[in-house]
């Protein structure tokens, strides 16, 4: 396992643990539905980062792309959880209208949450597309 894959796995464990702590704090946030979303997102993305770390060596990502993609996965995961947690605390609802129904933050709070949530989602999607591209384009060279 490469050093960057180990960093990815450790970041996943930390995010998973933060997700558990967010779960404990759900009653303390202004929008508990959004707090639940932050909790679940942290636990699920933490688990996904751990899975990426364990499987990284089989995804055929070139060495020159590994570090930027791993850092992008970590940053986008933490930013997404942070954005959703901010939405629960403020409470803001524009970026996540289903979980935020009935709540409204100030215009600056809504803008901050929207930029963080939407920006992190774009980064995560682009990272996953790139990783999928490398994995699929190298399928003929897989080993058991």
Commentary on this structure:
The chain is 76% helix and 0% strand. It is an all-alpha fold and 144 residues long. The protein is elongated and about 50 Å long.
Strand share of the residues? under 5%
Order of helices and strands: HHHHH
Principal-axis shape equals: elongated
Distance between the termini: 16 Å
Classify the secondary structure makeup into a structural class.
Answer: mainly alpha
**Helicity, as a percent range:** over 70%
Total tally of structural domains: 1
Short recap of the structure:
By secondary structure, this protein is an all-alpha fold. It contains five helices and no strands.
Detail the topology: elements first, then pairings.
Elements: H1 3-25, H2 32-55, H3 63-89, H4 97-100, H5 107-137
Helix pairs in contact: 1-2, 1-3, 2-3, 3-5
Notable features of this structure?
144 residues; mainly alpha; 76% helix
